[in-house]
Design goal:
The chain is an alpha/beta fold and about 500 residues long. It folds into 3 domains: about 300 residues, Collagenase (Catalytic Domain); about 90 residues, Immunoglobulins (Immunoglobulin-like), CATH 2.60.40.10; about 80 residues, Immunoglobulin-like, CATH 2.60.40.1930. Helix content is about 15%, strand content about 30%. The strands form 8 sheets. Strands 1, 2, 3, 5, 7 and 8 form a 6-stranded mixed beta sheet that branches. The protein is elongated and about 95 Å long. Bound molecules: zinc ion.
């Protein structure tokens, strides 16, 4: 289990994030058709893409914050983004899992970097070989994300929401996919200097610049190439733009709104023959807004699989998978809801779920994940928080994470109240229950009597807050608690009533 030494306040204000996102370009990758992709598209049968198998791909996560220790991406947000990522890739039968620990980098020059070259420097410094390296920063050179083919992926934390597809888009690039509008990134010319009216026929070729985005870093040459403009009739689809025939013509190289009903662009375009068309907004590799983008085509999927198998076999060394989560929701066993807990060394424990690789734990100031105070991914079913504020209410919840399944539901909230003294108020307890004996030897029964006729939940908790026995639910009559398994020591008997919880202490002696 991970040891937690500090509590970090995480307040996510989504409105601010949305505003910041609009200032970022959708993608900074100057995509091109690599030699590998050209070879594959010319001869797709060259690679057995093992299309019946799911390919499991390890990713390393690097969270990059400032020198002052702020601005780090959160593990809750990561889990949400991974759920979307693996959902986007479901039909490709490629799934991603986190290899190793999440890495933290505290460097402002990387958290907010002005150029992709600076990002490349970061990646060369921190990359973990044999994995796909992803760096979540605040500002990746003014973009939502980019992929450097020879290094890794940089992503803005502003573009990693549950409904964002930036990450899937950049991994698409990393696995060889260009934009469907390849060639139009700089307009008709490579640098945006020639304007084009989409009502007029497009030229037969456009120029594009992919300096810094070759397979290796080349610093001394500007690389400008010619792309053939794709025709509506499909006659040049295998050599024009991205070279995929199941991605239709698209000339839109800045973020564009889409019609959710037709999944097409509002912008009509004209191919070099004069044929009119709208762009396909469902493609993750397009620049359509995230509300329309949802898929990779069959040819794109085959290319990504072939790219992994043929060019990146080091990413496929571990294909083990434990299976799906046996249950989509777990529950917190201790502390119990409404429990008053001592403010230090508070131990939380929850039901283990079969095939869970990890659990995401959250401590919040509000219900249902509002005002997240602290979150962490742990690989055990318990977690101890060293210290919380005194006399405060907190809400804890947890969710199971599979190796590749990050979409499980949260447990219900458990509300705790911290106290400086102890969780025990004998007077309150004794006004409802008669308990005997309170000093006993191991093996003796504890007997609780009450006049109450409502359902009562009874739990026994040791001095560390750990739940000992299964909960006893009782409507009326005496409650007997066996002590055979209770070593000598102090225990707290907790009774959860409909409106509040009360507790008292018992001592077991030798
Ligand atoms: Zn892109």
């Amino acid at each position: 289990m991970r040891l937690i030494s500090t509590l970090v306040f995480i307040l996510t204000i989504s409105i601010t994030l949305q505003a910041q996102k609009e200032h970022l370009a959708p993608c900074g990758t100057h995509s091109f058709r690599s030699e590998w992709l050209k070879r594959f598209q010319a001869q797709p049968d060259r690679v057995d893409t093992r299309s019946a198998d799911i390919l499991y791909v390890p990713i390393t996560m690097h969270f990059v914050g400032t020198d002052e220790g702020t601005g780090l991406f959160t593990e809750t947000a990561l889990t949400r983004a991974l759920c979307t990522l693996n959902d986007d890739f479901k039909d490709t039968d490629i799934q991603f899992y986190i290899a190793g620990e999440i890495r933290q980098i505290w460097k402002s020059v990387y958290a907010d970097h002005a150029t992709t070259l600076k990002g490349g420097e970061m990646m060369f410094e921190y990359n973990v070989p044999g994995t796909l390296n992803n760096y979540v920063v605040d500002n990746p050179a003014g973009n939502c994300g980019y992929n450097l083919p020879y290094a890794g992926i940089a992503l803005s934390d502003n573009c990693m929401g549950a409904n964002d597809h930036t990450w899937s888009h950049e991994i698409g690039h990393a696995l060889s996919l260009p934009h469907p509008f390849l060639g139009w990134e700089g307009g008709v010319s490579h640098d945006g200097s020639v304007s084009h009216n989409f009502e007029n026929p497009a030229p037969t070729t456009v120029l594009y610049d992919y300096t810094f985005f070759k397979d290796t870093l080349i610093l001394d040459t500007m690389i400008i190439d010619t792309a053939i403009v794709e025709l509506v009739d499909g006659s040049n689809c295998d050599i024009a733009a991205d070279g995929f025939c199941d991605t239709k013509p698209d000339y839109l190289a800045s973020r564009w709104p889409c019609d959710e009903a037709t999944l097409l662009s509002y912008q009509e375009q004209t191919d070099p023959t004069g044929a009119k068309f709208f762009s396909d907004a469902s493609l993750i590799m397009s620049y359509a807004l995230d509300n329309c983008a949802s898929r990779f085509t069959d040819d794109q999927s085959e290319a990504m699989r072939a790219n992994l198998i043929d060019e990146k076999p080091d990413l496929l060394l571990d294909q083990s998978h434990p299976g799906d989560l046996s249950q989509m929701v777990t529950s917190i066993n201790f502390p119990f809801d409404e429990q008053v807990v001592y403010y230090q060394n508070i131990e939380f424990g929850w039901d283990e779920i079969d095939n869970a690789a990890n659990y995401l734990f959250q401590l919040n100031l509000g219900q249902n994940g509002t005002f997240v105070l602290y979150d962490t991914i742990v690989n055990a079913s318990t977690l101890t928080l060293p210290e919380l504020d005194i006399n405060k209410n907190y809400y804890a919840r947890v969710k199971a994470l599979g190796k590749t399944d990050f979409c499980a539901d949260w447990s219900g909230d458990v509300k705790i109240k911290t106290s400086e003294t102890s969780s025990v108020d004998n007077q309150d307890f004794n006004s409802i229950f008669t308990i005997a004996p309170t000093l006993l030897v191991q093996g003796q029964h504890i007997v609780l009597s009450s006049e109450l006729s409502q359902e009562v939940k009874i739990q026994v908790v040791d001095i560390n807050g750990r739940l000992l026995n299964p909960q006893i639910n009782k409507v009326d009559g005496d409650i007997k608690i066996a002590t055979n398994n209770m070593a000598p020591g102090v225990y707290v008997i907790q009774a959860l009533l409909q409106d509040r919880a009360v507790s008292t202490k018992v001592v077991i002696t030798d």
